[in-house]
Structure formats: C-alpha cells, structure tokens
Predict the structure.
Amino acid sequence: MAKAPCAAHPQAPAVARCFRCFAPVCRACRVRVLRRTFCPRGCSAIYLLQRAAAEDWRYFRRAAASTGAGSSRRRAAMARCNASDRRSSRVSGG
C-alpha cells in the first residue's frame, strides 16, 4: 500500500497523521508536542488549550468536593462547573 502524500506538500510522503484532525503530515511540516504529532494548522494549540481547560476543571472539582461547605453549596459549585464545561465544549467543538 502506497503512503499518502502530505496535506501541505503533495510531493512529499507523509510520515504520520495529525493527532487531532488525522491529516497526513510530512517530516518538514509536522509539529511535535508532548510526544504527539500535529499538522501545522494549529491543532497543537487547540489540543493544549483543551488539555489546560480539562486540568482546570478537574482542579475545581477536587477543590469543591474537599471544601467544608454544606452539601447544597457543593452541589451548586458542581452545577456551575458542569454548566461552564458544557458551554466551553460547545464553543471548542470537542
């Protein structure tokens, strides 16, 4: 089976696929971030932003669960967190 050509350079053979959009990329245009390969169109930045948002959400959830506040306050904090997570996933398309 022949290798697919690079999405940006049709004359160059692809050596990998983008971790996010699965576009074929050649050696010249691949972007390596956190042991992953991305295309040069900005998929690496989107991946890092989504990863940071997920880390913030996990931190907030842990902090809300460990507070000494009553259960109604904890549920309200979790509801706000879940609502903002749904909004951000709708905006980012993830």
User: Anything to note?
Assistant: The helical segments are 43-66, 71-92. Residues 26 and 94 are 26 Å apart (CA to CA). The radius of gyration is 19 Å.
